[in-house]
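Archive entry: two folds, one per protein. Generate the first.
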Amino acid sequence: MDGPAHAYTYPDVGLLIGGDWIHDRAPCHHVQNPANDEILGPVPGATDADLDRALEIAQKGFEIWRKVPPQERSALLKRVAQLMRERAAEIAPAITLEHGKPLADAEAEVSRSSSFLDWDAEQLLRNCGRIVPTQHPNYQFVVREPIGPVAAFTPWNVPVSAAGRKLAGTIAAGCSVIIKPASQTPASTCLLAQCFLDAGLPEGVLQVVHGNSARVSEKLILSPVIRAVTLTGSVEVGKQLMRLAAEGVKPALMELGGHAPVLIGADVNPAKVAELAVGGKFRMAGQLCVSPSRFLVHEKVYDDFTGEFAARAAKLKVGDGFTEGAEVGPLVNFRRIETMQGMVDDAVMRGAKLLSGGNRVGNKGCFYAPTVLGDVPLDARVMHEEPFGPIAPCAKVADMEEALRIANDIEVGLAGYVFTNDVELADRLSNALECGSVAINQFTSPGADAPFGGHKESGIGTEGGMETLDAYTVSKTISQRRVNI
């Protein structure tokens, strides 16, 4: 594992309230670089007075922004997207510093985030109402209106992509938004927020706050100002925020955890699938909600696939995200290393074979070796708990019906993957998998132009596609008589 090779300065983190950045609050915590254990900087915590002011300003911002014509909102979002692309050389290193992912992945995240803004800038112009025919000489209209101020909570693994998606949707719809980034990755979200300010977003439409997650979420969600909640995060956190939202009968858009199955049929070239699997599984050290995390392989190709998969995983370059050629960065913190080791030890104790990895790398930073486990029994933790790290458990199946049963036999369903050259089988499996998105013969996830969300405990609602504004708008029916009174 190689050390860092960069000269980037970590940006100042602040609260954004009423168009002003606030840096002089007592730190709620300090951000740590997961690649070298160094402290990057303090994060100012919002006081109760700060949160009250943010809520008050968000209400005023909503009253202003909801009246702005769609064409002007669209033009602003396009300016934000352009600023993001121009500032990628500033935003991407901030992501790598606080998250650890390779710089190329951080740059790709900035590009992906800007695509959400471009899409929503166009989609908001198609947020049309309709005229409903009636039997009487009346007019009946259905219009879509912004729901109101939104509380948004974003994760550490894709701090700009997740934030960009939520800010694009809320602001496109005409809502104001208060966003709380993850404590591990606040700076990149602050840089994104600055793009909105510089693009001309009126003060009060977007606020950024930091602090204790439980305290901030309760304060915001229980406030009568907030009319909708959106989260990308874990199932456990999602359930808690939904309970808070239920107190005020507020809709909640939840993109929660997954445990993506990979169904590999008997008719594939196992070496080719293994090559794709290494890139799909160990990208960003497996810290993606759509990361393939259960490999269910037909017995006819199982040995060839797992052998090639493990050999390729062992050759991946683990290192600081700024290091030339680094393919696998660190985990976000040391607790994740403990979780990885616990899952590996549990699987091996139950009879799994350690085919590659299975250990921490180096004595500095939060690096864990790309790990492939073979013959993993179904009762192993890693088969029913999302690893969210560089562990790939493999299990042998007699046919794809068995693979399908195993894939669906958990309470989450975000993403799924199918590899086969049989078109009929691919169609049948993709329709039967209980998840929000399925990729066939590739590892990919929906972009800006398609809805993304989960089934079962993986979430409620979707982001992106034609449905991108649904969570942030409400329908209103207006009936008007044609006669004078």
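Generate the second and append.
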Amino acid sequence: MASIAIDGPAGAGKSTIAKAVAKKLDYIYVDTGAMYRAIAHYLVTNHIDIEDEKALAEACNQVTVEIQYEKGQQQVYLNGENVTPYLRTEETGNMASKSSAKAPVRAALLDLQRNMAKQYNVVMDGRDIGTNVLPEAEVKIYLTASSKERANRRYKELIEKGEQPDFDKIEADIIERDKRDMNRAIAPLKQAEDAVLIDSSDMSIDEVVDKILSVAQTVL
């Protein structure tokens, strides 16, 4: 089985790019961020204090996260319930960023992620795929973009949903999330030594996909 690991900060376009690359190669796309968001959704809805180590560990022991593909679309199941529609809220995203730094949360998902890579050809995106989850991945990409460009993408996304977002707050949240992800004690966000750096700030989706495919063609 072959693996492509795509890491990078929030809003860099990892999911969009990873899906497109997986489709081109006929690989399975594994959205690890959605898996962390599923646990975050559970923590938010059950009012779990993630600073309470005992409560957090107990919560993680009560959670099962599964990825299924229905009509070619990834669906995320939390304890048997399809929670995919609830995973993209700002509250869930912020909780995912905070809780993903906690050892019980990471342990709950690590084996599932690695097992998927053993069973299928995968494109997996996240914060620590190339450095921690799949350190032996054949292709490693570090995908980034400026905080302003990432905030602009999120702003447009929210406008299209009919919301009235505050651009400056969105960018401030992104910068804060970057700092949190890069400085956490467990599996911090960083570029793997053998990863190819791609800055998508001034690139189209197709240009980024083509770049990754050209990298993949040299090793797969």
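Annotation attached to the second fold: The chain has two domains: 1-27+123-220, 28-120. Residues 169 and 181 are 18 Å apart (CA to CA).
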